[in-house]
Amino acid sequence: MGNTHFNNSVARVFLEIGNESYTRIFQATEERNTEMLNLRTLPETESFQCESCESNCLIDMELPTRTDGSFKSFMGYCAISYRNSIQWELQQDAVTDEEGFRRFGEFFMVALGTFYSPQAGMIFEIEFSSGRTILAITGDVKAVNHTDERNQYTVSNGCMVEFIVDPRVISQTSRRMGNMGFSGMEGSVVRISRVLECRAEVLNEEEMDSVFS
Fold this sequence. Notes:
- Helix content is about 10%, strand content about 35%.
- By secondary structure, the chain is mainly β.
- It folds into two domains: about 5-55 and about 200-210, no CATH class; about 75-195, no CATH class.
- A hairpin with a 4-residue loop joins β10 and β11 (about 135-140).
């Protein structure tokens, strides 16, 4: 197959997912930013979407069926006290915004179950049914004994996304209800996507002919 079927935005993307390496070939289309043309199979619980072959890639993570995540609990950042940890290091460069959310740069700091984030410091894009989408970094990881058998949500309240906050600054309503949904994070969780840094290179004509022949 010749390169006349493809435009100049065709690129080979190299991804590191855990201990596995994957190669993807993408081509821009009018319908969406990128279209998958060739791939190795990802685990069944993950699907691949690349927003920009030159910047970030997203791995859509499976959502639980027993909760919609509309309850979003919070934890005080001062509860992170173990100094020899990623959690502690992240807090040293974090700030509290006007609504009481802890922020690491542009990222909201959250705690997720190990299904999504086996360690702190991982970056996610989270979308709510309200239409709001946020970028988040795991500033802590939910305790396994507090979460369901797949470690996706807290069993006691169905919380998937727990926000790290300064309890002295959050609204009285959020503090009283124990739910940061009352501080602009309304709605159920409709998407959690792991953000991966990818390395991409644009294919030349010879490489495209080789890949798509």
